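User: Hi! I have a protein structure encoded as tokens and I'd like to know what sequence might fold into it. I'm fairly new to this, so please keep things simple.
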């Protein structure tokens, strides 16, 4: 078992055919403290990806032949093992990604619950019985596994996303090759350790660390990989979608967002500001469902901006491991440079920086409130993936909805109002996969279908909940005549 104290460096190996294969090439340092070397992981090549796919292909038939409740028992046991390591895994998650300890504990909790949820799904058959036009005939459907599945994940939820993709794949009888984000190898390592310790047979889950352009591309191109489930940026996602379509593989791609929160004149301003800041600044704004546009009607505009400035001061960035920190650092120098560039561009296009937007120390970025933003401005259109809220005015609900929908993205959208009719109208007309009324745009329960529309998603299969297994299975119709 791998354990670590808050300063131990983890030497992480690939997991191929049940064996840990050490390697080097990639170092991860704590974004809150660059002297803390969190992990050394392999920078793998195509050969390792190839070996992992071979191991998965060899292991998959025997895994699929196990009764589903037996597969589920492994996931349930893994959940218990991860529960026993909850605090260690949460602390390592803070060290490698930067989020706060409370956020990391919540994320590890999510991974545990996801394993339990899909573990218990082993007892639920997803097939259907249908009436037949012929006498003495039973017609039923079965869900069949796809075979070997590639799972490619981002750094922002480094244990929850690998868990919510891997668990439904495994319970459905697939074998998995997981490629975690290069800068967050530790969390996925802990997840795979829990599954191994729970008795997952060798080769059923393989983990290959390394660069997306090498390991990710290799998985995407391999004809033995029947399907790829990807979460990450839109540019990479669209490329993977094209590659899988070309070879007729199945693909599920969840990508970026430019999520808007509408605040109507009748809203409670203080509550709306808290909802906007929770959606915009929690997780350092590094959530695909983070609010990044606040669209407000005239009577509420000035009071809301004042309240948002107060909220921005509350989310002072700090080390996620320190007591009382509400917001951690930005994940990397590259991400910080991109956040600061977005703020500079907004200013150059005429926006006012009403609060924050400076990084005084390391990767600590004061959350920013931008006003005087126009709908065509870059800051109103491009995903930033940082703690930046752009405030846009709208004359009324209809213009607000028009602004929400004036985006290439369609992941999450929210509204703050006490008017039920306005809320319902919004829920019907906002083009987004997730709609929140009087709640932050971020955060979904694990049993709720999740995904976007437009350039946020392939919009084919939803993740999470009972619908998640649809992606990892195909439907077979069986006729059984009993007069033979
Ligand atoms: P990214 O696209 O850079 O990387 C995601 C994963 O893809 C990583 O494992 C990376 O190594 C791999 N990858 C990179 N290039 C590849 C290639 N050519 N072929 C195959 N794989 C490749 O994204 P990121 O920076 O890790 O994450 C941030 C992005 O993720 C944001 O855009 C965010 O909105 C998005 N995201 C979306 C959701 C969602 O559910 N919609 C959830 C979380 C994050």
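Assistant: Happy to help. Inverse folding works backwards from shape to sequence: for each of the 484 positions I chose a residue that suits the local structure. Here it is:
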């Amino acid at each position: 078992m791998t354990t670590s104290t808050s300063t131990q460096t983890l030497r992480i190996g690939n997991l191929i055919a049940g064996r840990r294969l050490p390697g080097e090439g990639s170092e991860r340092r704590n974004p809150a403290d660059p002297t803390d070397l969190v992990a050394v992981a392999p920078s793998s090549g195509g050969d390792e990806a190839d070996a992992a796919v071979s191991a998965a292909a060899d292991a998959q038939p025997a895994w699929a032949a196990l009764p589903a409740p037996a597969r589920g028992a492994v996931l349930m046991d893994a959940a218990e093992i991860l529960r026993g390591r909850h605090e260690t895994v949460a602390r390592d998650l803070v060290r490698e990604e930067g989020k706060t300890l409370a956020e990391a504990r919540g994320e590890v909790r999510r991974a545990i619950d996801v394993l339990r949820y899909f573990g218990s799904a082993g007892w639920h058959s997803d097939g259907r019985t249908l009436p037949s036009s012929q006498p003495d005939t039973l017609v039923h459907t079965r869900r069949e596994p796809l075979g070997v599945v590639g799972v490619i994940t981002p750094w922002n939820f480094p244990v929850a996303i690998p868990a919510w993709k891997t668990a439904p794949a495994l319970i459905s009888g697939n074998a998995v090759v997981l490629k975690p984000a290069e800068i967050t190898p530790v969390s996925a390592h802990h997840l795979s350790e829990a599954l191994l310790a729970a008795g997952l047979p060798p080769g059923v889950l393989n983990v290959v660390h390394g660069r997306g352009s090498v390991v990710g591309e290799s998985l995407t191109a391999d004809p033995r990989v029947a399907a790829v489930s990807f979460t990450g940026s839109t540019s990479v996602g669209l490329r993977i979608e094209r590659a899988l379509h070309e070879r007729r593989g199945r693909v599920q791609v969840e990508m970026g967002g430019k999520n808007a929160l509408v605040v109507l004149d009748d809203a409670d301003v203080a509550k709306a500001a808290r909802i906007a800041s929770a959606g915009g600044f929690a997780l350092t704004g590094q959530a695909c469902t983070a609010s990044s546009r606040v669209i407000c009607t005239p009577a509420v505009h000035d009071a809301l901006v004042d309240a948002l400035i107060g909220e921005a001061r509350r989310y002072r960035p700090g080390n996620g491991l320190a007591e009382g920190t509400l917001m951690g650092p930005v994940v990397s120098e590259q991400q910080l440079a991109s956040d600061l560039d977005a703020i500079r561009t907004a200013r150059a296009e005429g926006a006012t920086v009403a609060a924050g937007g400076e990084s005084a120390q390391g990767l600590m970025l004061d959350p920013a409130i931008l006003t005087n933003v126009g709908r065509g401005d870059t800051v109103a259109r491009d995903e930033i993936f940082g703690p930046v809220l752009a405030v846009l005015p709208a004359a009324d609900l209809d213009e607000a909805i028009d602004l929400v929908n004036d985006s290439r993205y369609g992941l999450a959208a929210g509204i703050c109002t006490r008017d039920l009719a306005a809320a319902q109208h919004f829920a019907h007309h906002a083009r987004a996969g997730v709609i929140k009324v009087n709640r932050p745009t971020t955060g979904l329960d694990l049993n709720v279908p999740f995904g976007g529309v437009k350039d946020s998603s392939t919009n084919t299969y939803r993740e999470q909940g009972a619908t998640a297994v649809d992606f990892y299975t195909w439907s077979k119709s069986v006729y059984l005549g009993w007069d033979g």
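A useful reference point when you look it over: The chain has 15 helices and 22 strands. Feel free to ask if any position seems puzzling.
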